[in-house]
Design goal:
Rossmann fold; alpha/beta; two-stranded antiparallel ribbon; 5-stranded parallel sheet
Length: 195
């Protein structure tokens, strides 16, 4: 069984991201994968990385549990809405708090190099946005996706990290929403087979 962990990064449960998560999970499970889902909005934790790395900040039990799920998974899928060209603050705080040195990476003393401690896992990002996807690509350089893809996931060893962008969400007709739900269901099926 393939082990897939899905992160629902929308701060408000029950939105389009939640429906996409459900469809992806259904497609993956029906194709033989073992799937776990984390809804960041339901976790009890302080998203503020108060003192950075100058002083340790104990992890809340929910975050300790998510770290164990990340170790467990072979494939990570992250769903979130793009707000102000990036991920919501709650999701950014989630990564700040769990992707810690000693867990996700380890620097080499007196060297520029680091160990990617989450090697051997792949990831896929699915983000929704009100703007058309081509505007995010051409004018903004997909800065939100780059932050998560390269600055966090690849930095810690996830590879490959692919992505899907669903643009113009506020103008989508019901038939278009259903088409995206179907595409994400199929993505779940293929992820279960190709991990």
């Amino acid at each position: 069984m393939k082990k897939i962990l899905i992160i629902d990064g929308h701060p408000d449960m029950g939105r389009l991201c939640s429906a996409l998560v459900s469809q992806f999970a259904m497609g993956a499970r029906e194709s033989g994968a073992e799937v776990q889902i984390v809804q960041v909005a339901s976790l009890q934790f302080n998203p503020s990385f108060i003192r950075g790395f100058s002083q340790s900040q104990d992890l809340e039990p929910d975050l300790v549990a998510v770290q164990a799920q990340i170790i467990w998974c072979e494939h990570l899928v992250v769903f979130y809405p793009t707000w102000w060209s990036g991920m919501p603050g709650l999701l950014k705080g989630f990564w700040d708090r769990i992707m810690l040195p000693g867990f996700a990476y380890r620097y080499h003393k007196n060297k520029m190099l680091w160990d990617k401690m989450l090697n051997g896992r792949s990831a896929h990002i699915v983000t929704t946005m009100d703007a058309p996807a081509w505007i995010d690509h051409l004018f903004l350089g997909r800065i939100g996706i780059k932050q998560l893809r390269s600055g966090i996931l690849k930095f810690c060893g996830f590879n490959p990290v692919t992505f899907t962008t669903i643009g113009s969400v506020r103008r989508l007709k019901e038939a278009q929403i259903q088409a995206w739900l179907t595409k994400v269901y199929v993505l779940g099926q293929s992820s279960a087979k190709n991990v």
